[in-house]
Amino acid sequence: MTQTMRAAVLEGPQRFSVAEVPVPQPGPGEVLIRLEGCGVCASNVEPWEGQPWSTWPGAPGGMGHEGWGRIVALGEGVQGLSVGDRVTALTERSYAEYDVARADMVVPLPGALDGMPVPGEPVACAMNIFARSDVRPGQTVVIVGIGFLGAILTRLATDAGARVIAVSRRAETLDLARRMGAAETIPMDDHWRIIEDVKRLTGGRMAERVIECVGKQWPLDLAGELVAEGGRLVIAGYHQDGPRQVNMQMWNWKGIDIVSAHERDAGVRVAGLRAAVDALASGRLDLSPLLTGTYALDQLGEALTATRDKPGAFVKAWVAL
Length: 321
Hints:
globular, Quinone Oxidoreductase, Chain A, domain 1, oxidoreductase
């Protein structure tokens, strides 16, 4: 096996280089994965653009956390995994040809997924968010923001017997939401009209579940307005660019549950990863309409530009390694 690998390094705001660096070595309880690809997460956009607390250069492969590939080496004490296994994993430096993962954060990929890109981590996030949403048959679920995450949640909620109303700013993603099962779609352009539309579609009751998937202030404000009394607001958007203000008076008056659905417990996260692999292998979820852009490692900046600007029917990029 080669001693060095290519890895993306964030050198400064919107500036990547591809460096030749040593291949990491697996320690006890770890495996080394030769990556086939890594999904590009929207949470990468703000660090890539440069946040006030950012420092450079970043770690080789840093920010890449949606990788999959084949195990090429085992650390001491690893059991239940073998060299050659095709896996997806929870790691942190997968914008590179190789990455190390804890063995207990690795999930084998069944043969049904051979040859397919499998960014397991973002699907795992969707599975865990859906579990926290407690969607029940017959409920109305409003999903604010239809991208990769919102589209998967639309499918999961529809399959669970809920009526989904999708709210998104692009015509292309509203069409995607309909293909994923949404019963109704609303353009995300006018705050008060959206509220009136949801009120009309629910006979004035509003929605028992609202899932916010954008990570910005206005969509959070809007989502709070759309929740029915006694309903549940699920915050799935990743709010990383500063503090938020919320209308606590309205939240209190409605008596709603607030769920911040970002899991940090390692056991919960890997359980979500297993559920994601099962959903993909069974055909319950199909990523083919969602993975809309493939990029080489030295095109990572272009992939992030597309992730930020979302041209046309773009949903999600991934880097082929």
